[in-house]
Task: inverse folding
């Protein structure tokens, strides 16, 4: 049973436009969420995170939004650049100091020049 | 700064052979994680250590898998005997257990069991 779901396996956008990647979770014990980016033949790299006490966190072109009541988060990339083309993973940590990251299956983003 | 270092990057071996994957975490990090990535199951945590002590091995698929961390700068994941269904990419990650520090991943070992 998947606790973190990324329902779109792929997304294609034009350079300069906004990319919106979505993630849903089922476990109400999750209280910290992270996005990782992964290029082929490399490990995932940390991008941005958000605590459940916030509903938005911004870092440059990247913004993560959290809707706790809907158990939904999204990653916005504005403006999208070809170098953003990668697989994006949503991940969650449960409250209580757990270090067990639970990952979604990823969304492959392609930014077309 | 050196990141998490995994070796080998690729391993091809025959069914029944012992496989040993190696990981050197980032210096100063005190938690280490082993993950497996497959098409079917995505990225799943196998086991993690804190201060060289195994904390949670509930993700280890079966007794054929074992992991050790003899010191703060080295860990191994061993599969004996290996089976074709063990073919996957295995990632090691580390972090400093302080608040919600993100995990830093190595580039993985692509394992193929024939």
Result:
């Amino acid at each position: 049973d998947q606790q973190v779901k990324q329902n779109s396996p792929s997304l294609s956008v034009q350079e300069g436009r906004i990319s919106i990647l979505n993630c849903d979770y089922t476990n109400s014990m999750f209280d910290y969420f992270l996005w990782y980016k992964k290029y082929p033949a490399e490990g995932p790299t940390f991008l941005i995170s958000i605590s459940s006490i916030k509903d938005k966190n911004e870092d440059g072109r990247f913004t993560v939004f959290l809707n706790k009541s809907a158990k939904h988060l999204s990653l916005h990339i504005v403006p999208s650049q070809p170098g953003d083309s990668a697989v994006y993973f949503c991940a969650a940590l449960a409250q209580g100091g757990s270090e067990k990251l639970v990952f979604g299956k990823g969304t492959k983003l392609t930014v077309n020049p | 700064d050196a990141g998490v270092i995994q070796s080998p990057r690729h391993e091809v071996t025959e069914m029944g052979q012992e496989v040993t994957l190696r990981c050197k975490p980032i210096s100063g990090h005190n938690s280490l994680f082993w993950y497996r990535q497959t098409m079917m199951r995505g990225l799943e945590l196998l086991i993690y250590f804190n201060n060289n002590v195994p904390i949670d091995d509930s993700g280890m698929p079966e007794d054929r898998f074992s992991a050790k961390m003899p010191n703060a700068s080295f860990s191994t994941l061993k599969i004996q005997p290996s089976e074709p269904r063990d073919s996957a990419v295995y990632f090691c990650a580390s972090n400093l257990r302080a608040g919600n520090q993100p995990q830093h991943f190595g580039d993985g070992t692509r394992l193929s069991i024939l």
Observations:
- The interface with chain B takes residues 32, 34, 36, 41-46, 49, 51, 89, 93, 99-106 of chain A (CB under 8 Å).
- The first strand of chain A starts at residue 4 and ends at 5.
- The CA atoms of residues 30 and 94 of chain A lie 4 Å apart.
- The mean pLDDT of chain A is 95.
